[in-house]
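Is this the right way to post structure tokens for a design question? Let me know if I should format differently. Anyway, here goes:
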């Protein structure tokens, strides 16, 4: 099995981070060495997953180094408590876009390429700002698998529609991105969303417990309840078909 980079992007508030974290957690539970990378400087990933962690290394520090090697990447990864197969690489609490110097598109590319040396699977939690965040743009270009997360709402669909022209160059492989319709309410008709997307999609139900986990910094916990079981079942199917190619 070859190492794979998985990019997760979508409209603002669509549940990209929750989706990315749950993909990473499920892969790690399959005994796959997994690294989740958070691109967002506005809402850093690490405090959402391990709010009590202090003095953690930052992705910003790594990108500011004179050169990036496999060793320096590993030195900036934060192992997850109670999960030997999962680590996090992200910005830290209190940091923002101006905390570190700007980095080049070449630096973003070097970093993404170097990630292949760190884990079996690298899940990149992208931002929604394709034209602003070079790390997100580079991840969407280089990823082996890209999931596009959409909510069944006019706002989410409109956002994806506005971003589609930006991803039309062949290097982004927009047509091969895998669609996820997220936060589907009971009895909600998603057929219009599927029609808009132009092909099939994985449908994930609204799970209030996941929102509670996000708000309380417990995204690595297991959610319970019927909706949570349906969510996990679809997630397992999605990973098996789209990531592991089983």
């Amino acid at each position: 099995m070859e190492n794979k980079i998985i990019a997760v992007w979508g409209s603002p508030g669509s549940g990209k981070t929750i989706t990315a974290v749950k993909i990473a957690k499920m892969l790690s539970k399959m005994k796959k060495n997994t690294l989740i990378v958070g691109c967002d400087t506005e809402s850093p990933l690490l405090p959402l997953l391990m709010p009590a962690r202090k003095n953690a290394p930052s992705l910003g520090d790594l990108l500011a180094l004179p050169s990036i090697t496999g060793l320096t990447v590993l030195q900036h990864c934060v192992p997850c408590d109670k999960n030997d197969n999962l680590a996090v690489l992200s910005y830290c609490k209190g940091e923002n876009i101006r905390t570190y110097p700007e980095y080049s598109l070449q630096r973003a590319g070097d970093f993404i390429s170097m990630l292949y040396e760190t884990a079996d699977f690298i899940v990149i939690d992208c931002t929604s700002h394709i034209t602003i965040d070079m790390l997100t743009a580079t991840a969407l270009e280089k990823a082996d698998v890209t999931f596009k997360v959409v909510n069944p709402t006019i706002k989410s669909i409109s956002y994806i529609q506005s971003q589609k022209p930006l991803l039309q160059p062949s290097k982004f492989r927009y047509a091969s991105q895998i669609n996820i319709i997220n936060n589907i309410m009971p009895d909600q008709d998603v057929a219009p969303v599927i029609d808009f997307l132009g092909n099939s999609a994985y449908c994930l139900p609204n799970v209030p417990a996941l929102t509670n986990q996000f708000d309380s910094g417990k995204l690595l916990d297991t959610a319970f309840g019927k909706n949570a079981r349906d969510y996990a079942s679809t997630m397992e199917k999605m990973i098996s078909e789209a990531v592991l190619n089983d």
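Format looks fine. Someone answered above. Worth noting: Residues 226-243 form the longest helix (18 residues). Strands lie at 4-10, 34-38, 78-80, 83-89, 121-125, 145-150, 178-184, 202-205.
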